Known about the structure:
The complex is a heterotetramer, with 2 copies of chain A (364 residues) and 2 copies of chain C (327 residues).
Chain A: H1 2-5, H2 34-59, H3 73-80, E1 88-90, H4 96-102, H5 106-113, H6 138-151, E2 158-163, H7 170-181, E3 186-192, E4 195-196, E5 199-200, H8 201-204, E6 221-225, H9 229-244, E7 250-255, H10 274-281, H11 285-295, H12 301-324, H13 330-335, H14 343-360
Parallel strand pairs in A: 1-2, 2-3, 3-7, 6-7
Antiparallel strand pairs in A: 4-5
Helix pairs in contact in A: 2-3, 2-4, 2-11, 2-12, 3-4, 3-9, 5-12, 6-7
Chain C: E1 3-5, H1 6-20, E2 24-28, H2 44-48, E3 53-55, H3 60-72, E4 76-80, H4 91-98, H5 101-104, E5 114-119, H6 134-138, E6 144-146, H7 151-163, E7 168-173, E8 181-183, E9 197-200, E10 205-209, H8 213-226, E11 231-235, E12 238-240, H9 244-254, E13 257-264, H10 269-281, E14 290-294, H11 302-308, H12 312-324
Parallel strand pairs in C: 2-3, 2-4, 4-5, 5-7, 6-7, 10-11, 10-13, 13-14
Antiparallel strand pairs in C: 1-8, 6-12, 9-11
Helix pairs in contact in C: 1-7, 3-4, 8-12, 9-10
Bound molecules: thiamine diphosphate (2 copies) and magnesium ion (2 copies).
Amino acid sequence: MIFENYxxxxxxxxxxxxxxxNIVNPDLMxxxxxKTIIRMLRTMLQAREIDLKLVMYQRQGRMLTYAPNxxxxxxxxxxxxxxxxxxxxxxxxxxxxxxxxxxxPLDKMFTYWYGNERGSHMAEDLxxxxxxxxxxxxxxxxxxxxxxxKLKGTTEITITYFGDGATSQGDFSEAMNWAAAYQTPxxxxxxxxxxxxxxxxxxxxxxHTLAQKSVAYGMPGIQVDGNDVFAMYAASMExxxxxxxxxxxxxxxxxxxxxxxxxxxxxxxxxxxDEELDSWKGKDPIARxxxxxxxxxxxxxxxxxxxxxxxxxxxxxxxxxxEQNSDMKPEEIFENMYSKMTPQLxxxxxxxxxxxxxxxxxxx
Amino acid sequence: MIFENYxxxxxxxxxxxxxxxNIVNPDLMxxxxxKTIIRMLRTMLQAREIDLKLVMYQRQGRMLTYAPNxxxxxxxxxxxxxxxxxxxxxxxxxxxxxxxxxxxPLDKMFTYWYGNERGSHMAEDLxxxxxxxxxxxxxxxxxxxxxxxKLKGTTEITITYFGDGATSQGDFSEAMNWAAAYQTPxxxxxxxxxxxxxxxxxxxxxxHTLAQKSVAYGMPGIQVDGNDVFAMYAASMExxxxxxxxxxxxxxxxxxxxxxxxxxxxxxxxxxxDEELDSWKGKDPIARxxxxxxxxxxxxxxxxxxxxxxxxxxxxxxxxxxEQNSDMKPEEIFENMYSKMTPQLxxxxxxxxxxxxxxxxxxx
Amino acid sequence: MPELxxxxxxxxxxxxxxxxxxxxxxxxxxxxxxxxxxxxxxxLQQEFGEHRSMDTPLAESAIVGTAVGMAINxxxxxxxxxxxxxxxxAFNQIISHVARMRxxxxxRYTLPMVIRFPYGGGIRALEHHxxxxxxxxxxxxxxxxxxxxxxxxAKGLLSSAIxxxxxxxxxxxxxxxxxxKQEVPEDDYQIPIGKAxxxxxxxxxxxxxxxxxxxxxxxAAAVLSEKGxxxxxxxxxxxxxxDSETLVKSVKKTGRVVIVHEEPRSFGTGSELVTMLxxxxxxxxxxxxxxxxxxxxxxxxxxxxxxxxxxxERIVMKALETIQFLT
Amino acid sequence: MPELxxxxxxxxxxxxxxxxxxxxxxxxxxxxxxxxxxxxxxxLQQEFGEHRSMDTPLAESAIVGTAVGMAINxxxxxxxxxxxxxxxxAFNQIISHVARMRxxxxxRYTLPMVIRFPYGGGIRALEHHxxxxxxxxxxxxxxxxxxxxxxxxAKGLLSSAIxxxxxxxxxxxxxxxxxxKQEVPEDDYQIPIGKAxxxxxxxxxxxxxxxxxxxxxxxAAAVLSEKGxxxxxxxxxxxxxxDSETLVKSVKKTGRVVIVHEEPRSFGTGSELVTMLxxxxxxxxxxxxxxxxxxxxxxxxxxxxxxxxxxxERIVMKALETIQFLT
Lengths: 364, 364, 327, 327
Ligand SMILES: Cc1ncc(C[n+]2csc(CCOP(=O)(O)OP(=O)(O)O)c2C)c(N)n1
Ligand SMILES: Cc1ncc(C[n+]2csc(CCOP(=O)(O)OP(=O)(O)O)c2C)c(N)n1
Ligand SMILES: [Mg+2]
Ligand SMILES: [Mg+2]
């Protein structure tokens, strides 16, 4: 119903809450209880604080490359929050908020970005795939997972994330086409943050919206104000219900903005103006939800301040642990290549240990 | 104007001449002189006769695998005929008609299918790329060629062909997106012959039409009756004029039918019914144009019969020559790997010649 | 016991594994209703239904990429690439994900899956339908590469591949799909991945090959035997991880070795094997290890194929040269 | 003469070739306005305009596939893959078309084009940002593979690559992009593709490396020299077609050889070189040719990289072992 009324070919964008936190589309305001709304706000705040901290650590030389999600917290949290525990999440690399919502432990996330594969070893009941770096490639994994869910006759659905740039990759198109052809239960969440590194969205494709790309596959698509957590939730919920009931996949374009750098190796000042950034600061998804919650008296300024301090302290403490526990033993490089180590690998590992022993002996 | 009036999202299909050879859409009948219409008919007839002959040779064990174009003669000839000599053609493997129109010599084509690369060495002024087997990969070459034409400031355009199955490949999507983003002068001609080997079009994608896939790229798209050579010509001409004048690429879905086997290795009876085939026989593009020409008295039955006989005789004669001249010398395998033979290749060639000499000497 | 050709043995392995374990699904282009362009999957959709044997859109990256997801979510996908020449659109999925998911997730997500395809020349086919490029896959850490050379092995190795917790590239020598029949037990049996087979024992020279080249190699061995020589013949069976133990043992015995393969010579599988043997049996080598291979060129269209593909005579000549080296 | 690092030398080569020949165009992801994520193409759009230095949609297959078309239609495209780990979506275009167009068309359509990308480990980067897989490309007949190890060579080799009528894969060792500066003439000069360079003459052992590993190898040679040994150091420069003549000549002299590379050991470039040397210098070898390489594993994330990447000490140890073999 939301999808039907917001045809991307008519250049419509779905919004529920405006930039001042007012509900401008009350009919379509999702029916969320207070607890959930507060949890949304808290997760968004936590994601933001983690971002700021990790970027700072990187500047201090304590952290490696990191891809912040600042500005995109509503896009991820508004969508991930429609999932059940048995559902699957297939991320790209800019979905910190969504991972937090699902209960991904901080130490794992930090360990990953700190440069150790241990960070991608999820707990057995955490149905999140590891960060996927090759753009758009993960969408096919989502389709495969969802296809398996369907073949097994479960009601599991799969959500997957990707950027505006990803829509130019062949894998995006193959995944969309396949998902629609086999009606697999997938939510394709395109975080259109307006840039693929330095490449503005307008040059990435001649389509007016990314949502309209769904037309090529006979799939429902919609463009949503990605900084409006309620709109994201409502659209995602409709898509999730469709998916669960055999109605197949949907494409949601979350129209948002990357307020930070692409990664800590990037300097966005090279390719975009301060004015543009400032105009988007006025649309900050956290500020918006905060205003809503304050207006509704769901939270107080003091509570928010307390939470923020807690989050910061937690990051500090967990990160220190991670820093101390992240060295890799040679074995770790070999152990997970195959279910059982091959003779060739065993030999290479032994060789390497011989070398270490030789070094130990003072190169004798 | 034709594209605008035949929006694929409204499930419109553009037709000028109906199955009985009547012009049902006189306003949009292209302004073609008699000579051109007769040339169209003759090329279609020739293409058909070549197909039938090569398939027969294959059954006789004289020919290798061959991919017939039977039933699709209007789709290729109606589109290729809008090109100028300086324009480029980037084929897949089922565009015999289009190659004939451009003046590709029979002996080259037969040499190719007979299994010798010499068949893909085009004359200098014949702007046709070699047959491209990996599905959809050639579309990117077309985009690159057209991009170069644009950068050089010429008015050259590029036409490229592919099947319904090809629209599922990532390269199709990347090519369409790129062509639109850079507004390169390309005509994308999708020969929707209803099958990708055994896979029916309906299962290939959930989109109602293939033409609507253009929406994803902000490109004009249209579905055309691909067995109507006039409709193909009119739509292609509009697209060509747009391309020449900086208006960028277009997608034309030629709605047609593969009346023969996928290739001579395929048995279509395994996956489609005689009734279906019969119903399409009633839409045969050659029968249709023949009726039109006879009605208009542009040709006589006798003339057609004479031409057919000439074509058959020519095929017989050329094919015999090709059979006798197609063995490959070892050098030919090495000579064109690089601009200059590498020492490694020279060594391998010498080695092989040593071996041949050893065999010659009675393995001494 | 039925006599089957290699193609039917592949079909039987798929059928039995699908019967044994309902997590096994088979899909690819023309794989379902049509039963595959070579008929390797014939009858599977009829027996197991459209949810176990599926036709797919024409998109290799998607075939492999969805298989990654399928495997993560509890299935055992056995996917087909229509020809070895068309696996490359899926190359990114193979190298970036299939080979890496286990290691990346430190064992949390594993990929029991098989990518099978017909490969190799000698069937007078169009461009891209005759390639052998096993070294490309063998160079990728994290996958296994298996090639059978007989119907019996095809069934046993494919059965092992499907049961393997690791992703396997299973290359089928299409030239010998129907070349000969062999007794193939209906019963369950597996041939271990990673083990070569000494097909014929000998003392003068070791001949190593795999896939369709085993045929030429067997014939060459017969010619050598007729000449009073004693060749040892080894079928490598697994290209990665290959069985260096068996190879080294043989070469330590014979001191001489010829490796035969179709794929281009440079940077090919032969290079890896020669290097390993040189490293591990240096002092036993009585002649330089030799190779009889496809040229370092593109495999020509059919009118030139006979030059490119190693023949019995080329193997014989190289074996004689190697045996005569410094003697 | 300006002192430039390797990155600036690449930039200068591009600039000069673009000045010299207006058919040269440079494009890729973030290549134009931004000047590349490493800044290899910095300033080119400013100097030559948006029609000579272009930003592209995020699609590697399209970048390479359009380059094929560009080259056919008279341009000389020099395209960038942002990292070596992201060339694989373009693999089908490379193996099926870039490498084949000349041969397929019997010389009618040739592809003067360059695919350049940063490769290799040691910069503490994310997954897919540290790989070396040169053997994958070297195994493909029809393309050339070039890797510079100094600023001077980078300019001369890239200039040759751009002028080459054959398609070239140009891999840039990003770890030493900014490691050191060297005098790099502004003048036109080319370094021939296919020729290795003997950097240091010696008699006891031949050390062969390329790219970033030249740094470790040079240091190892210094250590060996300090120990009174005489190593010969060779920079391979071109991986395919490699310069067997120079290598064989050296090994015939020294009788001992260590090959150093980052890429995984199995089926790697080292295997090809050892095999070639064994074939051509068998009777001169006084010890088994040895390799110091990356493991046959996925290169680990930064906290494990130091184990994986060959170090000066690993090279020294292997060289000493080889020198001491049977003496
Ligand atoms: C296949 C591939 N090519 C190139 C890259 C390098 N790269 C990393 S992120 C990025 C831009 C991605 O843009 P977008 O999809 O919009 O996602 P965002 O980073 O904006 O969230 C690029 C080009 C990559 N990771 N994978
Ligand atoms: C990348 C790739 N995958 C698979 C094939 C094998 N194959 C050859 S033709 C074909 C079907 C093509 O269908 P379509 O695009 O509709 O073209 P048509 O043959 O019907 O003209 C397939 C799967 C191929 N040539 N290339
Ligand atoms: Mg983006
Ligand atoms: Mg078709």
